[in-house]
């Protein structure tokens, strides 16, 4: 398969993710190819379990791809999608990836079908549902269910985490204004994140720019604990807030042109 075909199918998949359901003719015009080419691409993606073809159109397979499970998922959605797209570049095939229960990681979970032989570790029910439907390997760090965030917490969750060596971990946060590291409102999630950082070869902080002006309760790490931070464009003053992080990446709509 050519790199051009891979790139086109990835672009096609992202369009369908954003729109939910798209007609074949619209996809052909958007990607400047024939409808026959689009139908072949859709067949390939359908065979991979990525989407479903329906009467001249295509739609995402899993309800979580389209419907937010809480208000948080509706905030800064476009920015989170940019961040997730960039985060995907750091994931190598045949690796073990941790995704935290945050809404940006949920966006990244939708894209993981584009990678091969990935094992996903998560304590998030919605992310677990997406990965279960993707054909990728899934390890759920189960425990006590925190219903509000639909995520597992507690001793049993950290016990699973401590038994696995993670290649790359993606974590979010609730804010960090006037602090030297990310914070969360949940003491239990703060503890889980500390275990994740200890078990991970590489750690990446995913957060949109709104987190720079929000505060929270429990700090679980310092910026220097992270290899990479991915966000949307921020001011020079805000960049100095996170100067401890080893690599800062800012993305917007022009990043992917």
Automatic annotation (TrEMBL):
Family matches, as InterPro entries: Carb_Metab_HTH_regulators, DeoR-like_C, DeoR_HTH, NagB/RpiA_transferase-like, Tscrpt_reg_HTH_DeoR_CS, WH-like_DNA-bd_sf, WH_DNA-bd_sf
Protein keywords: DNA-binding, Transcription, Transcription regulation
Coiled-coil features, chain-numbered ranges: none
Pfam families hit by this protein: DeoRC (PF00455), HTH_DeoR (PF08220)
Top-level taxon in the UniProt lineage: Bacteria
Keyword Transcription: yes
Name of the protein in its database record: DeoR family transcriptional regulator
